[in-house]
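Summary for the steering committee. The consortium agreed at its last meeting that each partner would contribute one worked example illustrating the joint modelling workflow. Our contribution is presented below. We chose a case with several input lines so that the handling of multiple components could be demonstrated. No manual editing was applied between input and output; the record is shown as generated.
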Amino acid sequence: MITEQTRGVYVISATPFTESGAVDFESLDSLVEFYLEQGVHGITLLGMMGEAHKLTFDEASAVVRRAVARVAGRVPVVVGVSHSSLEVMSALARLAVDAGAGGVLVAPAAGLRTDDQTFAYYEAVAAALGPSIPWIYQDYPQSSAVYLSATLFARMVGAFPAMVMLKAEDCPGLGKITRIRAEAERTGARRVGILVGNGGLYFPQSLRRGADGVMTGFAYPDMLVQVYDRFVAGDADGAEDVYDRYLPLVCYEQQPGYGLAVRKEILRRRGAIRSAKVRVPGPSLTAADVADIDRLMARLALRLR
Amino acid sequence: MITEQTRGVYVISATPFTESGAVDFESLDSLVEFYLEQGVHGITLLGMMGEAHKLTFDEASAVVRRAVARVAGRVPVVVGVSHSSLEVMSALARLAVDAGAGGVLVAPAAGLRTDDQTFAYYEAVAAALGPSIPWIYQDYPQSSAVYLSATLFARMVGAFPAMVMLKAEDCPGLGKITRIRAEAERTGARRVGILVGNGGLYFPQSLRRGADGVMTGFAYPDMLVQVYDRFVAGDADGAEDVYDRYLPLVCYEQQPGYGLAVRKEILRRRGAIRSAKVRVPGPSLTAADVADIDRLMARLALRLR
Amino acid sequence: MITEQTRGVYVISATPFTESGAVDFESLDSLVEFYLEQGVHGITLLGMMGEAHKLTFDEASAVVRRAVARVAGRVPVVVGVSHSSLEVMSALARLAVDAGAGGVLVAPAAGLRTDDQTFAYYEAVAAALGPSIPWIYQDYPQSSAVYLSATLFARMVGAFPAMVMLKAEDCPGLGKITRIRAEAERTGARRVGILVGNGGLYFPQSLRRGADGVMTGFAYPDMLVQVYDRFVAGDADGAEDVYDRYLPLVCYEQQPGYGLAVRKEILRRRGAIRSAKVRVPGPSLTAADVADIDRLMARLALRLR
Amino acid sequence: MITEQTRGVYVISATPFTESGAVDFESLDSLVEFYLEQGVHGITLLGMMGEAHKLTFDEASAVVRRAVARVAGRVPVVVGVSHSSLEVMSALARLAVDAGAGGVLVAPAAGLRTDDQTFAYYEAVAAALGPSIPWIYQDYPQSSAVYLSATLFARMVGAFPAMVMLKAEDCPGLGKITRIRAEAERTGARRVGILVGNGGLYFPQSLRRGADGVMTGFAYPDMLVQVYDRFVAGDADGAEDVYDRYLPLVCYEQQPGYGLAVRKEILRRRGAIRSAKVRVPGPSLTAADVADIDRLMARLALRLR
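What follows is the complete predicted structure of the assembly.
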């Protein structure tokens, strides 16, 4: 099970599809192996970039069961269970934990506008999940349009013992990490984990602000692992040197609503999955996009030599 | 099957739940009977106000099968099949038609921004549904954030023969109805049906602009039927007189993100369903809200006397 | 100067333009007289429906000076001073008060997302305005996309003594009025005024929830005055009877982004202004719209007979 | 005057303020000199990142007159004139051109939703500006929420001869540049200029797609000039090598709603302006932010050595 001490690189797994749009379970197996070979510290299934909202409940369940079985305890698995109905969210969470997942990721429901509304929603979430399922607040307002202040997060840390982590993807978000860490230090409150997202953008800066790692699906999780390892070994500059070499690809993959096609294409090229197919409606690559990727990968290869 | 000539009052069915949040199939039966007793010309399942997005695929399938079986051909049934994945949308549409539904309702996917993007999405929808499933464009930008011009709609009418109707819920939307009717007259294009929504707000004005009826879940579908019948009988003023008597309740139920609780409570009081339960997160009524409803219903009863 | 005890009907003044788009100061004079003849208890200049954001600072200043001079102390005048720069907002507020205005209306700046951000912005507003200019929080999230909870409002009431009123236009918003009044009663906090907006929609319900009146530009402020007078005289049903007669016009004028053209046209027909011109880009009326207005006004005349 | 052939690096000028929030005209002079020393091909005043919406009309006029006089014809000057009223926009445009500006930048008004609405708005813009003021369409939907397709842009190119350029800031936006260039080639339509924005993010990729340069306020315009010069000299890899060295700072400055404080601080450190003051409400730097900037600038200096 994940805890407040969970840290490192949790890769947001893509969900592989065949060219016809069915879930490709063999690619899911190979993708899990790929991620583990890159040295990730954990795997997150059914994140937003895992196209969770494009799966039926049955498909989602099957993905969870297959991937958890394949991981076979080598690293913890987190499952995104966000849903517009708390009843459905809760059913998926139970199913995930029963299958062997170590925790769940819950984004706020659409339409929460004020601190009180967000708190009330998570009160319901906490009640539905109970004390034994550790959960993570996913703070990704670019998609949810729900905004989290450091003050509200502190209130939630106090109220919800099973909430053990913040997935921090607000942008700009560095100041929030600083405020959360400072506030907890000032009050002596429980210190929860913070993993950042956004494809790895601002990862070195985030670590210096107090983040414990990253939870993202960037197609080179090996880079994220190297950056993390060097940083915790005290070599902040070495970490940032590694990071900077990949930054053009981080930026390219970070194009909103489009990066997923880039990510899956690179995963395909790296042999992790068989098809870069994204469910419809979703981005697809043009010849010019492919030329960009060719060029960025070639330039990366040169820099790494 | 619905066609371009389909008209009248299509009620958007609520989805009844038990107090614990399970689908209440017995109430679904009684609700169907209630709607038919009010004289509706058709029933729409799994609309946005039917909490479709809060059901699993299996629950949605079960609701469709049960309600279609209960209607037993007495009126046509339309099924909302909007989903963030075209693959899932298409599967639900096929299941609905196989169960006996007469057409499907498809809202645009999130994130469509330009005329070309919206057209391209519906090209994919049309290809996925094929020529034999009649479908309806749901124009409800307050929720979808996708905007439809009369020009784009005319282009779609020309390109998609199986698109037989517009569910018109843009607000303000009267001008769009006028423009669509004028444009079709000018070009001699196929005349498709237009049913308006928004809880019935602006229904009399919409009929004068060229709408063919209404598709909404207002808790007094009997009023909508009376207004429609009088209007098509040539008594526009009589129609509007009936409408005006219910207008305070139309307005009250039309409060965004909250009206569903009002609607289900009135349906419960009218004996149509057993519980006004809305899945979480969703609106719930306070004592002051209940007092408002008491008062509005009492004043309505006085006016109807 | 307005205070916590200010109540009644504050009409949001339209800003009249000539057909060529210049501010029409003579119509501003006649409009002021028209409003006063309808019995309003106050006048608000440069609200959102006063096209404030379409004026230069110099034009806004001239409108304030002319209207305040014309009112000549017969009722209090409130001035909308919302601006994307606090420096400019503050300059306009000072100018308004120097000209004789009794208070200012301040909507939150764009982009405020959390309770803390909104509070911090109003801390800056309060500091800029100082203790001697009474001000009103304009809660109109449909336009500002800034959301106010009852909890945050209570915190602001405690912190900002010069904030004497809430202009409550959230929708749904009845529950918030109830919560604000209940919370203040529970804590014994200062009771500030609440005037509702939204063209008068839900005015009777709002009064029962604890609102002190209405601040809106509905083209029949005489109706609002009658409703208010009857309600405070203890005749809630009589108040609602008057209101219901005008409800079709309240609804029609309430069409978002379009109602201003309706409002100005009715004001023109009632002899209050010379032209219904709205600055570009803005709504304009088609022949079908004009026919709707003709019909709604004729039906109103019948009901009032 | 700018034309379809205008290209290179147009820097979006910051608007300098004193610590008390007044426009700092002396810093405006020094900033103009700084930009010219960096080799920019043009200067754009009163862009969104120039805090145009936080100035009064009089302040905006004074900024234009002072900066144009200081530039004294050494490079063309473009002026952002976007305003919620066409009447005010048009007055500022005339004033700018009379003062010596070579063209104006016009973002779409808020609330334009469909291709037809956007086209109609720019028809009014084109009529208001007349044939002799060259103008630029600013495509920045992240702020305007107005979306431009390649199809609609082609229609505008055909209809508005005075529209000579696209400021392309949509994100993702590379595909749109490709489509616009391909469509114009296919139809033989007029080729207009395309300058990209977004702080320079994706600048090398944009040049390869057919952009003619960049219009942005990144605090190192010298880098942008070098990238542009190398690229047009045929050294695409050399251009990208220069770019990659600055990419960590491009990313850092690109944090939405916050980068302006970073940009002004770097401009201050580089001696271009006296104060990094941003008008309220606006971002301000914390100690941790300053530490980030220190570190990123130190690492840049190392890479440039």
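The two ends of chain B are 39 Å apart (CA to CA). Residues 236-253 of chain B form the longest helix (18 residues).
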